[in-house]
Amino acid sequence: MSRAYPAPAKLNLMLRVVGQRADGYHELQTVFQFIDLHDTLYFESLPPGSIHRTGGPAGVAETADLTVRAAQKLLTESNVREGVHIHIDKQLPLGGGIGGGSSDAATTLLALNQLWNLGFSRTELMAMGVSLGADVPVFLFGQSAWGEGIGERLVAMPELPEAHYVLLHPGVSVATREIFAAPELTRQHAPITISAFLDGVTENTLETTVRRRYPGIDRALDWLQAQGLHHARLTGSGACCFALASDAQSAQQIVATVPKPWRAWAVRGCNRHPLHDLVRDTLF
Ligand SMILES: C[C@@](CO)(OP(=O)(O)O)[C@H](O)COP(=O)(O)OP(=O)(O)OC[C@H]1O[C@@H](n2ccc(N)nc2=O)[C@H](O)[C@@H]1O
Ligand SMILES: Nc1ncnc2c1ncn2[C@@H]1O[C@H](COP(=O)(O)OP(=O)(O)O)[C@@H](O)[C@H]1O
């Protein structure tokens, strides 16, 4: 087995739907920051053409797993004769709005590009990544980012505070597709500037629709606010919610009081992907 390759989660510190493309996908403005909660992936060489995954998310077939699809994409694009066994130590909740599947896919692209000596540039990997999911490119971009388009047009954010957060999963799974298809969703919010975000415009405009359709998420956001935490928000299309804590200790104290069956974590924002340094020589 290879060394351990982390696949971190992300938060959307702000998200606005500002339009819709002809193909139905929604144009967004968003701010991505990674957090120190992650899956861990391991890779082992197999005979050419065979790709296997173990330890992955229950209920996701091997062939549908984004890591397997990422490995297949690399084989198709490079024409090399390789095979791989991918083992995922899965910690990130599925459909949580924290990008676990996308991050697993990005880490697979980064790791196999290195292990198979493929020499693809970061830009080439990002183009492959976006065909697997709208959230994959930011994990290859490797740093906190302002995202536009469907999240694939990225620019580095000025250093954001690496704040402590309470991250709460209210035990429901949100189908991203359902929220974007909701007739009541407002699709034409006025675009904002990076300065406006830094001055405090931080809403997630999917939140009203998600709160109405998922009462458990509505309650979770109200619960976070009732703990006296600032900036209680939905990340992505949910189901996870997060709020700013003053320090690690107060985040942990609040996590300890979260009612069952909700799950919660005390996490910290990270402006750099944990693989940023590892692949700097080849990619960043
Ligand atoms: C909303 C965001 C914000 O970071 O995060 P999540 O909540 O998924 O983490 C992402 O844009 C989600 O990205 P991702 O989860 O990769 O979405 P995809 O699999 O590409 O899309 C699922 C479905 O949602 C709809 N969709 C998705 C993204 C987008 N900008 N417009 C859309 O209309 C499409 O119907 C698409 O078929
Ligand atoms: N390795 C993987 N980890 C998580 N989900 C995966 C994986 N491979 C495929 N999926 C599929 O991708 C969907 C979205 O997963 P995920 O990225 O965790 O959520 P979100 O996009 O809400 O942040 C899952 O519901 C699952 O069906």
Task: Explain this structure.
With 284 residues, the protein is α+β, with helices and mostly antiparallel strands. It has two domains: 5-156, Ribosomal Protein S5, domain 2; 164-270, Alpha-Beta Plaits (2-Layer Sandwich). The chain has helices at residues 66-78, 100-115, 122-130, 136-141, 176-181, 194-198, 207-213, 215-226, 248-256; strands at residues 5-20, 26-46, 51-54, 83-89, 145-149, 153-156, 164-169, 230-234, 241-245, 263-270. Strands 1, 2, 3, 4, 5, 6, 7, 8, 9 and 10 form a ten-stranded mixed β-sheet that branches. The chain starts with a strand and ends in a 14-residue tail after the last strand. The structure holds 4-diphosphocytidyl-2-C-methyl-D-erythritol 2-phosphate and adenosine-5'-diphosphate. The site of 4-diphosphocytidyl-2-C-methyl-D-erythritol 2-phosphate has 19 residues, from strand 2 and helix 5.
Question: What keyword list fits this structure?
Answer:
single chain, 284 residues, alpha+beta, Ribosomal Protein S5, domain 2, Alpha-Beta Plaits, 2 domains, ten-stranded mixed β-sheet, 9 helices, 10 strands, 29% strand, binds 4-diphosphocytidyl-2-C-methyl-D-erythritol 2-phosphate, binds adenosine-5'-diphosphate
What is the residue-averaged pLDDT? 95
Q: What is the straight-line distance between the termini?
A: 25 Å
Q: Which structural class matches the secondary elements?
A: alpha+beta
Low-confidence stretches: none
Ions and ligands: 4-diphosphocytidyl-2-C-methyl-D-erythritol 2-phosphate, adenosine-5'-diphosphate
